[in-house]
Structures are given as structure tokens and as C-alpha cells.
């Protein structure tokens, strides 16, 4: 009994050293993690740039300057410049807006260095300046931009700028430590840390092509275009957007994965433009209800809802109602993943689409073609107005006594065209003062307005013509 009492008395003192050792081990582990973050900061900071952008003030753009109550083109046509009370006020002196963001050097060759940033950081810029941690500042020129993925490449004439190393974003795992660096709120070279919260975020409505890494590393206004890095100091993403109800950080940030950003950046450096693959089908989400109606055991994948006539998909035998499950052996969880992989496929190459049709699993090879981006822009511009048009027949041309025009055949309900009073049977004579006589000319003229967010149409109804303006921004 005395021996047991002695052991019980000594036991707390015997366990103290082991508890202290465990605590010391935990603290040492934290120290090592802290040193890892510090090492990344020292390694990458010299290649990260503060981007300063100057451009025209939004209040001085043509669309917003036009506070004159009468349409210039219409009233001058009928009344001339000297009509009393209709003279246009003198234009205000243009103001300049200033923007800011982040970027990083990813390639440096001789006297030329290339920086990656977001398109939305430099869009509309008249002057771009980049400043590095050592205080050096340079004027930058735009090498190329891809608004659909929100990627832009800047070129700087400077020797000796360090470049960051690319990492493989496909190897990232949820829960892995990541580091974000940038210039939030203009606070140069700020480092924040967090983990990968999720991967493959699509259909967020941020970009046309989305495959975002979600992270809880703090990202704020001014961080856009900065690198997201792993603990080896490799770029695994480019910080692009946040989810916020306040405008500031709320724990959810999104980065373009490095594999996507690198592919686009290399094309922009090589040719100043991006080429994308075209397969010719559109998809919609495969909901649980649709999967059950199709008697599928899974609800992962994408449902083919349209196959374009004459497209590679049609020639390969793909049909509406097929369910895409794999792209070149890689599983597809949704339509966004299919769209990204199709766009990144090299024109002229062959890919294999795995799909389910009538309960059977099939693998269909498809030859990828080049996506016609200009045709896509024209189609999107036409869709923005919500009209369908066709060329006039010779008989219609004689009857209306108009040599050049397109005939509106359909108008989408609640569209811009419908709200402007355009109806089927309306003739469109001009788009931004350019006569149009075919759907191709109409779409091309309309696509030229997409950057301005407004268009001036001259239309004719019941033998009389008038001008209408439509704005979508």
C-alpha cells in the first residue's frame, strides 16, 4: 500500500517532462510552418508587381456623356446644326480614372519580361505602370488579353526581373496550404495564407470559362491578378474574384488554376491571341430529376441539349439526349468542365467523349476544329438585342422600295428590341450609321458595338423611318 501511495504521489511529477516535451514539439511545428510562409514570401515577392492603371473616367464615356435630350444624328438630319435650342453643349474636359491591381512575372527573356494579370484589371487602360518591391517602376504594354477567361499578359522592357515558377494545379488537394500575394486596397506586397477550400468551381457567372480554385486565403480588392502559391513557392493559381456581400473579404475567394492560366498566357505571348477548340454541342446540367427520368444510377455529367448542324459532334454521331460522362478519360462532373476541356483542346486533334445513351456506355472519338470567335461574338451580339433577321427577297425589295435592309423575323419577349418597339416585320436599315443588307452585315456591325454597350439603329415601319438607341450596360 505504501508503494502504491508513493507511485501515485510521484506520477504527476513523472508526467510533467513528457507534457512539456509535447508542448515544445507543437510550438516547434508551428515555428516550422511560420518559417515556410516566410520563405515563400521572400522567394516570390520580388516577382510580384503593383499595377497602376489610368483610363478615361466612366462618366466621360460616350454613352454617359450623352445627356443632350435629342439624338444628334436624327435632329441634325432634319433641322441642321443651327436649329434654335438644339445646339449641343460644349464637351466637358475629360477626366481620368485610376485603377489598381496585382500581377506577377512568369517569363523573363533578355530585355523583355511578361507579367500575368486579370483582364478586368487593365480593361480600357490608356496607360499601365508596374511597380516592384525594390521600387523600380516601368511602363507596361498590353501583349494580349482574353476577356472570356479574364486573363491578360503585359510586356515590360526590363532586364533582370525574376520570374515565378509554374506549379501543377491539377495536383492541388482540398485542405492544402496556399499563400496569396498582392496589393489589397493598394497595400503593396501583402501576404495572406489559407487552404484550398474546393476545386473545379464552375457556373459561377464570373467568366465565360470557369474552373476556379476556391480558397479561404484573404483576397480583397487590389488582389486581382496576384499569384496563389503552394508552399514550394510555385504558382498554382491567379487570384481573380471574391464572394462578398460587403465588398470585402468574407472567407471565399476564387483563383484561376495555373494550368488554365499558363495555357492562355503562352498563347498570348506567342501570337497575342487565344485559339480554342470547337466540338459543336451545348450541354445543360444533369439534375437528379433528369437522371431519374433517364433511369441513370448517377447524376454526374452533362446532358447534351443541342448538336450544331455540320459540327464535329454531329459528324461523330453524338445526339441530343446523350449524357457526357468523360472527356478523354477524365470524369466530368458538370457542363462547365466539359466546356473548359473542349475549349482547351487543340484544333486538329482527336478527343474521346465518354457518354451514356439508352443505358449503354459509349466512347466516341471526335476531331476538334477551330472555334470561330468572331462568329461567336456576332451571334452573342445579335442575341443581346433579342432579334432574328433575314435578307429581303427581290420581291420585298421592289415592294418597299428600299435597296438595302434586313427584315426582323422574330423578337424575343422582354428583350431590348421588344422594349424599343421593334416587332416582326420591322426593317433595319442601319446599325451605327452603317447600312446593312444581310444577316452577316447586321451581326458584324452589331458586334462592333459590344464594347460600348449601346447601338443606334435606323428602322422602318409602315413607310416611315426613325432612329432608336438601345443600351445594355
The low-confidence runs, each spanning 5 or more residues with pLDDT under 50, are: 59-81
Q: Which CATH-level-2 architecture of the domain at 165-271?
A: Beta Barrel
Question: For the CA atoms, what is the radius of gyration?
Answer: 29 Å
What would you give as the CATH superfamily of the domain at 165-271? Answer: Trypsin-like serine proteases
- CATH classification, class level of the domain at 165-271: Mainly Beta
Number of helices: 12
DSSP strand count: 27
Proportion of strand residues: 25-35%
Please give the share of residues in helix. Answer: 25-40%
Major beta sheet, strand line-up? 1-2-3-6-5-4
Structure description:
With 473 residues, the chain is an alpha+beta fold. Among the domains are: 165-271, Thrombin, subunit H; 278-368, Pdz3 Domain, CATH 2.30.42; 373-471, PDZ domain (Pdz3 Domain). The protein contains 12 helices and 27 strands. The strands form 5 sheets. The protein has a 6-stranded antiparallel beta barrel. The longest helix is centred in the first third of the chain and has 43 residues, at 2-44. The protein is globular. The termini are far apart.
Outline the fold blueprint.
Layout: H1 2-44, E1 48-56, H2 62-65, H3 72-79, E2 96-109, E3 112-117, H4 119-122, E4 127-132, E5 137-146, E6 151-157, E7 165-166, E8 177-182, E9 190-201, E10 212-215, E11 227-229, E12 234-242, E13 253-257, H5 258-271, E14 277-278, E15 281-285, H6 288-293, E16 302-307, H7 312-316, E17 323-327, E18 330-331, H8 335-344, E19 350-357, E20 360-367, E21 369-370, H9 373-385, E22 387-391, H10 394-400, E23 406-411, H11 416-419, E24 427-431, E25 434-435, H12 439-447, E26 454-461, E27 464-471
Parallel strand pairs: 7-12
Antiparallel strand pairs: 1-2, 1-4, 2-3, 3-6, 4-5, 5-6, 8-9, 8-11, 9-10, 10-13, 11-12, 12-13, 14-21, 15-16, 16-17, 17-18, 17-19, 19-20, 22-23, 23-24, 24-25, 24-26, 26-27
Helix pairs in contact: 9-12
Amino acid at each position: 500500500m505504501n508503494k502504491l501511495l508513493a507511485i501515485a504521489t510521484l506520477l504527476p511529477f513523472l508526467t510533467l517532462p513528457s507534457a512539456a516535451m509535447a508542448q515544445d514539439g507543437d510550438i516547434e511545428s508551428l515555428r516550422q510552418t511560420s518559417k515556410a510562409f516566410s520563405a515563400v514570401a521572400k522567394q516570390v515577392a520580388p516577382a510580384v508587381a503593383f499595377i497602376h492603371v489610368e483610363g478615361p473616367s466612366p462618366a466621360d464615356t460616350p454613352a454617359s456623356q450623352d445627356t443632350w435630350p435629342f439624338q444628334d444624328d436624327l435632329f441634325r438630319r432634319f433641322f441642321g446644326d443651327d436649329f434654335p435650342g438644339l445646339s449641343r453643349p460644349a464637351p466637358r474636359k475629360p477626366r481620368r480614372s485610376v485603377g489598381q491591381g496585382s500581377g506577377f512575372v512568369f517569363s523573363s527573356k533578355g530585355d523583355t519580361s511578361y507579367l500575368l494579370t486579370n483582364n478586368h484589371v487593365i480593361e480600357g487602360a490608356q496607360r499601365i505602370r508596374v511597380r516592384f518591391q525594390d521600387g523600380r517602376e516601368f511602363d507596361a504594354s498590353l501583349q494580349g488579353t482574353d476577356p472570356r477567361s479574364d486573363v491578360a499578359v503585359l510586356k515590360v522592357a526590363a532586364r533582370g526581373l525574376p520570374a515565378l515558377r509554374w506549379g501543377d494545379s491539377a495536383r492541388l488537394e482540398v485542405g492544402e496550404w496556399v499563400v496569396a500575394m498582392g496589393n489589397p486596397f493598394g497595400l503593396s506586397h501583402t501576404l495572406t495564407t489559407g487552404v484550398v477550400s474546393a476545386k473545379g468551381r464552375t457556373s459561377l457567372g464570373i467568366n465565360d470559362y470557369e474552373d476556379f480554385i476556391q480558397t479561404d486565403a484573404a483576397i480583397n480588392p487590389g488582389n486581382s491578378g496576384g499569384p496563389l502559391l503552394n508552399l514550394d513557392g510555385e504558382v498554382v493559381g491567379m487570384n481573380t474574384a471574391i464572394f462578398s456581400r460587403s465588398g470585402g473579404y468574407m472567407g471565399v475567394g476564387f483563383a484561376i488554376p495555373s494550368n488554365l492560366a499558363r495555357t492562355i498566357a503562352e498563347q498570348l505571348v506567342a501570337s497575342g491571341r487565344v485559339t480554342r477548340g470547337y466540338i459543336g454541342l451545348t450541354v445543360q446540367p444533369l439534375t437528379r430529376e433528369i437522371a431519374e427520368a433517364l433511369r441513370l444510377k448517377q447524376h454526374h455529367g452533362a446532358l447534351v441539349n443541342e448538336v450544331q448542324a455540320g459540327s464535329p459532334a454531329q459528324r461523330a454521331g453524338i445526339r441530343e439526349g446523350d449524357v457526357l460522362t468523360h472527356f478523354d478519360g477524365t470524369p466530368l462532373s458538370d457542363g462547365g468542365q466539359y466546356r473548359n476541356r473542349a475549349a482547351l483542346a487543340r484544333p486538329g486533334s482527336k478527343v474521346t467523349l465518354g457518354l451514356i445513351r439508352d443505358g449503354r456506355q459509349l466512347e466516341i472519338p471526335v476531331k476538334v476544329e477551330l472555334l470561330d470567335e468572331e462568329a461567336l461574338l456576332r451571334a452573342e451580339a445579335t442575341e443581346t438585342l433579342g432579334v432574328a433577321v433575314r435578307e429581303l427577297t427581290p420581291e420585298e425589295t421592289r415592294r418597299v422600295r428600299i435597296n438595302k435592309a434586313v427584315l426582323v423575323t422574330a423578337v424575343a419577349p422582354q428583350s431590348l428590341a421588344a422594349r424599343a418597339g421593334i416587332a416582326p416585320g420591322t426593317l433595319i436599315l442601319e446599325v451605327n450609321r452603317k447600312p446593312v443588307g444581310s444577316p452577316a452585315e447586321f451581326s458584324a456591325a452589331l458586334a462592333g458595338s459590344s464594347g460600348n454597350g449601346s447601338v443606334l439603329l435606323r428602322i422602318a415601319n409602315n413607310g416611315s423611318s426613325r432612329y432608336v438607341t438601345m443600351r445594355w450596360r
